[in-house]
Fold this protein.
Amino acid sequence: MINSRADRLTLDGYGLTSQRSRERMVEQLQEMGIQATAVLAAMRQIPRHLFVDEALASRAYENSALPIGHGQTISQPYIVARMSEVVCHQQPQKLLEIGTGCGYQTAVLASICPEVLTIERLKPLFDRARATLRQLKIDNAYLRHGDGYEGWERYAPYDAIVVTAAPEAIPEALLWQLSEGGRLVLPVGKEEQHLVAITRHGDSFSEESLNAVKFVPMLSGTR
Ligand code: SAH
């Protein structure tokens, strides 16, 4: 509860009070079963409130998705943690994210992986995410305005691919951009969606179904 001046969220990004809110958020993630130390450490550090509009900053550390404009959302912290955990135990060196959105998950991934490439189809979100990541001096995330359905062939293969919008079926191009043993995690489905993790073994792939989820749809083309 925000009941004193000292408890108020500070908006400079490094305030003690937002640090306390993040500690509480991380404790909640641990209670929900997130164990990966690198993910918890990243989420303890990254100022999630700087990725949302100022008017929503006081809600930035609740475990919920929030609007970021253009009909899109910043994913719920638990989902960001879960997806990051699924890919991070293999210590990926190069990771591709589809659906930069506000860039929060990009920041989390850039803290656990040396090289992150990320694609966003909506130009205003791409521009804003780039500015926020620059402000936070995150220099190992490479942003592209484009359609993620085709992946990013030029820099493939990737040890991990994280998709943060839901296609109705798994985009095939992404499978072939995985490195040997590489992992793709994505929500799949329309009304009913599931988080799916796919691992590459040569020319075949194994699939594991994880949590039921609710993501914005993955759409074709750019705007
Ligand atoms: N990881 C983000 C989640 C943003 S919501 C965060 O933490 O904020 C999903 C994002 O995927 C939206 O910004 C949406 O515009 C984008 N998206 C949807 N379809 C896409 C596509 N085909 N290629 C790239 N981005 C896409």
In short: The pocket of S-adenosyl-L-homocysteine is lined by residues 72-75, 80, 98-99, 101-102, 104-105, 119-122, 125, 147-149, 164-165, 216, 218-220 (CB under 6 Å). Confidence is low (pLDDT under 50) at residues 1-13.
